[in-house]
Backbone:
């Protein structure tokens, strides 16, 4: 007898008030991509222009890049929390990983059950 596995559901996207932005697992992303708004917001905060952002992400439309910036400006506190949570020192602390002086990261191995 052959059984069929149920299709795996991808991440659930929730619409937002911005036509190019969806929430994926609670984080804002550009619709149809895996690009998080926080990445575009970081570039924008550093002074990058929309043209710079499009150079880094050539598959984005100018409208999507502008919408990501607009979403960031409308939801600044939430996006700033995401940015802070993804800073390297916070990720290392959360995972127990360590970074050496050369920038190599080691992750502690899982302890086998005894």
Residues:
């Amino acid at each position: 007898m052959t059984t069929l596995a149920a299709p795996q559901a991808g991440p659930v996207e929730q619409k937002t008030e911005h036509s190019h932005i969806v929430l994926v697992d609670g984080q804002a992303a550009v619709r149809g991509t895996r690009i998080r708004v926080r990445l575009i917001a970081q570039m924008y905060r550093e002074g990058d222009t929309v043209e710079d952002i499009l150079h880094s992400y050539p598959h984005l439309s100018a409208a999507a890049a502008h919408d990501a910036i607009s979403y960031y400006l409308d939801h600044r506190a939430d996006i700033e929390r995401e940015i802070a949570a993804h800073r390297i020192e916070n990720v290392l602390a959360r995972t127990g990983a360590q970074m050496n002086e050369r920038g190599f990261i080691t992750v502690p191995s899982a302890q086998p059950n005894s």
In short: Helices lie at 37-45, 50-56, 62-74, 76-85, 88-95. Residues 41 and 72 are 6 Å apart (CA to CA).
